[in-house]
Design brief:
Layout (H helix, E strand, L loop, with lengths): L2 H20 L20 E8 L2 E8 L2 E7 L4 E5 L2 H12 L5 E3 L20 E7 L5 E9 L5 E6 L5 E5 L1 H6 L19 E8 L4 E8 L2 E6 L3 E2 L2 H12 L3 E4 L16 E7 L6 E9 L2 E9 L6 E4 L2 H4 L3 H4 L14 E5 L11 E5 L6 E4 L4 E3 L1 H12 L5 E4 L2 H6 L6 E8 L11 E13 L2 E6 L4 E6 L10 H8 L1
Antiparallel strand pairs: 1-2, 1-6, 2-3, 3-4, 5-9, 6-7, 7-8, 8-9, 10-11, 10-15, 11-12, 12-13, 14-18, 15-16, 16-17, 17-18, 19-20, 19-24, 20-21, 21-22, 23-27, 24-25, 25-26, 26-27
């Protein structure tokens, strides 16, 4: 073949490619192929345009944010991630139900008639991996319900697609704001305070190695389940309505708040502050609120369980948990009830064994399971009520000569002195029985727990110890 023939074939091939490209690139698209080819986890930005308005969604440090309003007066807030994930999932699954090639667009079926020449609505997705964007513009609905005509990236081909993503994406702007009052994670909280009213009533809690502790208005061990329920209630509180931008905070009672909540998460530099303003006129169950980690003022309902919580509702009615594996010695003193007032009962770990031994009783052995069961019963002692540990109350409840149980860890092995390096892990003191109850004090607690008098049986120690002293 001559060079002229070869050149002619090359020109024909090139012409065919050009005609194929401009006559509709999607002719080879499979009906089952994803139209957008999105990878939802790689999308970092979405623009939702409707007329002259647009909603911009940006993923920043793994968190979706929404920008609302105009270029000169916009508001950025946390976005509703569940809504965004729905849009992405639906967009990624879009397939063409029908394809109209450029040659099909003539007569009554045209870009103009399908409202796709200058589309009023579009979705643009930005992919962080390839740096490309994909824009899907929407026209009129199809003849069958649930279908809509669309163009991809200005292509001359028209696709008939399911309209599910349109129904999900084109909503009022407020729908894209995270309706949760706060993004605080109850599991990561390490400190929280509630200050109420002009009298500055304050409730402060701090999380330690063993759980939550009250530090104000008293020092006490907390009921972890009660605190978790309270903080979970706070984290799950929903915003009912956003006030217009520029709303006067004083008109909403923010200058003299009903309550202020300050919550600090582990790893965060500063706490989140939630301010509860006045009740909404005519709706006392609704309050104006603001939160330091998001803009504006909003209305929230059903706050009573959050702001009306009391220390007694959060504090534990049982002794602070004690780790048995940290205890080396247990002392019960005095022992008038056991007929030997001169000596305390001393129970120590038996060397080379999981069991324990009672000193002063020919080294009576007590099985580890019996010690564990006895301590478990002590830990399950539950207060019916609390009384302040004033000098008068201590005297009247029998704390001039209480029965004490001490749990001791021996920290030093390099001294001949038996008590050297001893650390009292916990101390329980029992007063005298009065009208079926007895006062119980844990360490230097400012309060007395009023418990059933049946708990006095536990001051005799495990049953094996009691039997040893009877002998």
């Amino acid at each position: 073949m001559s060079w002229k023939g070869t050149l002619a074939l090359l020109i024909l091939a090139a012409s065919a490619l050009i005609i194929l490209f401009f006559s509709g690139r999607s002719q080879t698209r499979s009906a089952m192929e994803s139209l957008l080819g999105l990878r939802p986890s790689e999308v970092t930005k979405i623009i939702i345009r409707e007329g002259v308005e647009e909603i911009v969604l940006n993923k920043q440090n793994g968190i979706w944010m929404v920008t609302l309003g105009s270029l000169t007066n916009s508001v950025s807030d946390r976005a509703d991630e569940r809504l965004i994930h729905s849009i992405l999932a639906q967009a990624a699954e879009i397939t063409a139900l029908d394809i109209l090639k450029p040659s099909d667009l003539k007569g009554t079926v045209s870009f103009e008639s399908l409202d796709l020449k200058t589309p009023k609505r579009s979705l643009t997705f930005f992919d962080k991996l390839d740096g490309k964007s994909r824009t899907l513009a929407f026209g009129i609905e199809g003849a069958a319900k649930g279908k809509i005509y669309a163009r991809l990236d200005g292509d001359k081909t028209v696709y008939l697609i399911p309209s599910e993503v349109v129904e999900t994406a084109f909503l009022p702007m407020e729908n894209f704001r995270d309706c949760r009052l706060t993004s605080l994670d109850p599991d990561r909280l390490e400190e929280i305070s509630l200050t109420k009213g002009t009298t500055l009533q304050q409730l402060c809690l701090k999380k330690g190695d063993s759980g939550w502790n009250l530090s104000s208005p008293m020092s006490a061990w907390c009921n972890n389940a009660a605190v978790t329920s309270w903080t979970t209630g706070l984290a799950s509180t929903k915003i009912d309505h956003w006030m217009p931008a520029g709303t006067d905070p004083a008109a909403c009672g923010m200058d003299v708040p009903v309550a202020v909540i300050s919550a600090h998460e582990s790893g965060s530099k500063s706490p989140v502050t939630i301010t509860v303003g006045s009740a909404v006129a005519g709706s006392p169950e609704n309050h104006y609120m603001s939160c330091s980690d998001r803009p504006g003022i909003f209305i929230v309902s059903g706050l009573a369980p959050i702001i009306e919580v009391t220390p007694s509702a959060l504090r534990s009615r049982q002794p602070k948990p004690l780790r048995l594996d940290a205890v080396d010695r247990i002392e019960i003193l005095p022992v008038e009830q056991l007929g030997n007032a001169a000596l305390p009962i001393v129970i120590s770990r038996k060397k080379g064994s999981a069991d324990w031994e009672v000193k002063g009783t020919s080294a009576e052995t007590v099985r580890a399971a019996e010690i564990s069961s006895w301590i478990e019963k002590l830990q399950s002692v539950t207060a019916n009520s609390f009384e302040p540990a004033t000098p008068e109350k201590l005297e009247s409840t029998g704390f001039t000569h209480p029965i004490r149980i001490r749990f001791i860890a021996h920290l030093s092995e390099n001294t001949a002195e038996e008590a050297a390096g001893d650390l009292i892990l916990a101390e329980y003191a029992f007063g005298k029985s009065q009208s079926g109850f007895v006062a119980f004090r844990e360490g230097p607690s400012p309060d007395l727990m009023i418990i059933p008098e049946s708990a006095l049986e536990l001051t005799k120690g495990p049953s094996a110890v009691s039997e040893a002293f009877k002998r």
